[in-house]
Fold:
Amino acid sequence: MGKLRTERIGVMGGTFDPIHYGHLFAAEEARCRFKLDEVVFVPTGNPPHKEQGPNLPAESRFLMTVMATADNPNFRVSRIETDRVGISYTLDTLRELRAEYGKNTVMYFITGADAILEIMTWKEPEQILEECCIIAATRLGYDLARLEKALPPAERKRRKTDPRVIVMEIPALAISSTDIRERMAARRPIRYLVPESVVQLISKKGFYR
Ligand code: NAP
Structure:
């Protein structure tokens, strides 16, 4: 019998309010660049770090994420944070996923650079970096100095040799959920910024009206 292969998974965390092609492209780019077996999208439930919550409830954002990822066999969507009651932390999510996938699984947490900045200055960044590498997806022209400054001491030490926080510039992230919501409020088009199945779902359910 052959040796069991270590699985490599991407964990794509986000509010996805709504999910758009920038997110999908970032996940696919990370999958190819870091040779990931699959990318698990984890839409947030009740984010702890926001005074103002998401525009849509967790269940609706989960549904949009399922629709958007359905045609990619290497993508799946987890309900971990959708179903979690109360405050939700990335560290808890990573530990739950490790329990599900097995302790030898190599994990890459992928999200926007501003969210990483927040995580690095908020809760247990060292423990998070013990669980996974972090991929900070940035828009073009993003100022990296703030992120570098926020990194914990252990990461700064290994920065040149073995970094666990990796920046990935994604031009498609010129698309943003905020812009999409503003477009909908102004009755401007969102088609081709968001997968067609999500456009249809938004229209059918009357989301963001
Ligand atoms: P956010 O503040 O809504 O987003 C920050 C920026 O990152 C926005 O420009 C956003 O663009 C972009 N972004 C968000 N998710 C992305 C993704 N997966 N790929 C590429 N860009 C992304 O951040 P958030 O969505 O609430 O949080 C992101 C993740 O970080 C979630 O998994 C959240 O649970 C986690 N987080 C955890 C803690 C903690 O545990 N203490 C603290 C902060 C964040 P769009 O608006 O276009 O998406």
